[in-house]
Amino acid sequence: MTRSRENSTVKDHVRRGQRARAAGQWTEAYAAYKVAFDAADPASSTERERAEIAGELGLCEVALGKYRDAAEHLAWSLEQREALPAALQKRFEEGQRKATPHVAKLRLSVDPPDAEVIVDTKPIGRVARVYTLFVEPGLHTVRARAPGREDAFHTLRTVAKAEHEISLHCPRASVSSAGEDAPGSSSEAPRAMSSPAAAQARPPSPWASWPGTARIGGIVVTTATAAAGAVFLLRAHVVHGDLRERDITLRAQGWTSHTCREASAPAACAGIRDRVNERDLFATLGKVSLATSAVFGVATAASFFTEVAFFGGAPKAAGLRIVPVTTSERAGVLVEGPW
């Protein structure tokens, strides 16, 4: 009785989906076929019924623009094509041709085959050694996990209409060596007694303390302000060049240096004044930025001498030396050291 009732319920949803599809009500048809697809199982329906429901659901998803789900359901339906009439096979194949240009196909092999597969954050509800999946174009993360093994990850960027093949292997989890690392271990005790590193603790390097962090920050600020100053001065130079060209053109038209000072000054004078103010603003910003860069550069350089005075030595030359260089027209940095 229970199986008969479940089978009747699935058929009711299918009939409701057929009526909605005939009326062009794709949202209602999709909802009905989705409920029928979730309710259908091998115990209460035949292979043909399940394949037909999956295909009809896929066609509804194509009409609604749900191309990834449509490609998945139509592919699953056509895997049972022998159970479908020729007319349904043709309809479902046509729907699949409409859906696949919008998605990417992913062929995934997994070891061990019973590992759980998760695409992005969605678990794949079946277990297999090889999967054929459909995903939206873009960046995706595939994860496999199995008991007693380490997780396997793979990130890839998929392209519409393309096929991608990846393989995931979950290695066996490493055996814990906690017993060997125990404080009372006989193999570790002699090693600790004879180790010169354990007998003598080296003091931390001044370069790793706060002066090193402040020095790095000083280099960054010096470089940034020098670069900003160069950009501001370059902008001021460009505006100044535009003003000079305009001045030459206006003087050729009879303008003089007093034209914009007269009570009946032309309307173009307002634009010229704005450009002059813009040039002066950028020039001021550039000079201030370069002056700030010089201040931070001097402070950064002084930190080296401060470290020598307090710690009695300079930091080891283990990296690069960055020195800001600024002039009235240019700004930059001088980088020295081993590459």
Automatic annotation (TrEMBL):
Compositionally biased intervals (Low complexity): 185-207
Superkingdom classification of source: Bacteria
Gene3D superfamilies linked: Tetratricopeptide repeat domain
Region Disordered: start-end pairs: 171-207
InterPro entries: TPR-like_helical_dom_sf
Record-given protein name: PEGA domain-containing protein
Classification lineage: Bacteria, Pseudomonadati, Myxococcota, Polyangia, Polyangiales
